[in-house]
Amino acid sequence: MKQVDSTLRAAVLVSGGGTNLQAIIDSQKRGDLKIQLAVVLSDKPQAYGLVRAQQAGIDSVCVLPADHADRDAYDGAVLRHLDRYRPDLVLLAGFMRILTPSFVTRYLGRLLNIHPSLLPKYAGLHTHRRALEAGERWHGSTVHYVTEVLDGGPRIIQGRVPVLPDDDVDRLARRVLAVEHRIYPEAIRLISEGRVHYADAAAWLDGSRLDEPLQFESGS
Ligand code: NHR
Ligand code: GAR
């Protein structure tokens, strides 16, 4: 059992703008989220998430894929960096590289992702475009535990947003990001309070298996 009285140490993996990282930082600074942000790691040197980490006084590191022979070597290098910080949680926040099974196994149950769709719909890439092309009336984002099944691990919480008549990918993505900034800190808070955990290939809330993810309603 995870100790609920000790502050969880989190590592955040980013590839881009890092607005989800910023939402986590802000939530922690407000005191809504009692975790320690140990390190931010990026696979892209230009990721603005690295700047956000530096501004917040969080250690940051960039591990370049081009410096490594293959995915195993790359993931091994990332693991070595993370291990120095002994994270209780590894949070993928717009991290765009698929992780190898050995990475996932190493952090199974402590590895979370936020994926911009209402999983199980639209696993993989280009989710906003696909939702628009399919004429969906609702779209959103899902926080889930990462397993070897891409975007297929147990879901914790979803945020729904309407698809509006004149939406394009940018407008829809912006609306999804706004709900992501609510649900990622909320999922981490539930874990840090010991209310949500991973066991037997499922997510659990207050001792019950979460067969359907929690639903975050905009405006609540
Ligand atoms: N790794 C595992 N093992 N399982 C998951 O569920 C993962 C994962 C790594 C990242 C995030 C995911 C998303 O939320 C994620 C989930 C990247 C790709 C991808 O195809 C797919 C899904 C996700 C992240 N990446 C390409 C690759 O070859 C690179 C694409 C690019 O650089 O633009 O790694 O959507
Ligand atoms: C978020 O919408 C996140 O769900 C998505 O990228 C964006 C990152 O934004 N993740 C993926 O598409 C993973 N494949 P951010 O860098 O501003 O947090």
Overall outline: globular
- Class based on secondary structure composition and strand pairing: alpha/beta
Low-confidence stretches: none
CATH-wise, what's the superfamily of the largest domain?
Formyl transferase, N-terminal domain
Described by strand count, sense and barrel closure, the largest sheet is: 8 strands, mixed
Distance between the termini: 31 Å
Radius of gyration: 17 Å
Task: Determine the fraction of residues in helical runs and give it as a percent range.
Answer: 25-40%
Bound molecules: ligand NHR, glycinamide ribonucleotide
Count of the separate structural domains: 2
- Named CATH topology of the largest domain: Rossmann fold
Number of extended strands: 11
Write the CATH architecture name of the largest domain. 3-Layer(aba) Sandwich
The helix-strand sequence is EHEHEHEHEHEEHEEEE
Count of helical stretches:
6
- What is the arithmetic mean of pLDDT? 96
Residue share in β-strands: 25-35%
The side-by-side strand order for the widest beta sheet comes to 3-2-1-4-5-6-7-11
